[in-house]
Amino acid sequence: MKKWFRLISVNIRNTIIVIIVLEFFLSLLFQHRDEKRQQENVDFKLASGVYQNVDDEIVRDLFTEQYRVDSEWAPYVHYRLKEFNGTYQNVNSNGSRKTINLNLKNTENALKIFCFGGSTIFGTGARDEFSIPSLLSKYIYKNYPNRNIEITNFGCHGYIRNIENIQLQLEILNNNIPDIVIFYDGVNEIISAQENNKAGYPTNASYRKNEFKTGTSYAKKISFLYASSNIKRFITYLQRKVFKKKTTEVTTLGNLPQEIATQYTRSIKITKALSAEYDFEVYNFLQPVIFLDKPLSEYEKLMAKKSTYLKELYLDSYKYILQNNELKKDSTFINISAIFEQNSTQIYTDFCHIAERGNDSIAKRIFNTIRPSF
After folding, report:
1. pLDDT of residue 13
2. Which of 283, 361, 311, 359 is nearest to 130 (CA)?
3. According to the CATH classification, is domain 2-373 in 2.60.120.10?
């Protein structure tokens, strides 16, 4: 009996050692592969001409910093951005990206503008001074140089409209009451619905679900460790390459586009109730994506092709949002999804993010929309 027990113990020990060694070497392999793909991605963006007025080394440094921006757990919103200090991207201890506030004289008496959204309002692929909130500050300063105005960029990668409402409520609970609130959404509402096959869930909901109670269940702990391991990633890679198995399946739409539109509309109604109670103005901008009416450059066509599995869901979801009778009558809802429909130049850096000159067009349109508030 002891002999069998020792044999089983040795086999278990050897298996664990093999797993640890394999995981370690796969981590090195994937780290190298990821760094190579990131470099190729930056090279692709540079070749597209979307950063034609920016030095190549600045763009490379910008994306090196972008890949280093990380997140941390936060109550109610699942996660927020960690503090980060770089040359071109800076995030403060509250998780807000640095905004170039040209109008700010003092914070105590400033008119407060809050900007909410995902990575596009955060400014993925743009320097601090060329994010949408910073460029909005430029237009405000140009027209109202003597006003005391503070813009805060609450944008965070993957955030959806429901989470942004919670962000706003948390600021109000801390007695940080805005005067103007800007929401810039559309992309993540579709991505999160596609990932979860349910509208209104955070983009990382399935990951948080798998992680829940792993500390008290060995079965869940092992399952979670495997799901997040490099071994699992390698198996998935083999399935895709060797067995030609698709890792990203096209979602069966069903009622999902209608559900996305409903969730988006309800979130707007919640914000309007808050604005009535706390006396601030609110603007809801529906953002552009590469699948809409823009005449695409050759590079943009390649990027759109890579995300074809999302195209139908985007087109249908936006259709239902724009057909919604409540939104048609809602003056706080502004559709700017077709803002680039006459622009044939390179705007997008992937299927949803736009480079700095695209951000400028968005910021100008937002300024012209909210201008009566000044």
Report:
1. 82
2. 359
3. no
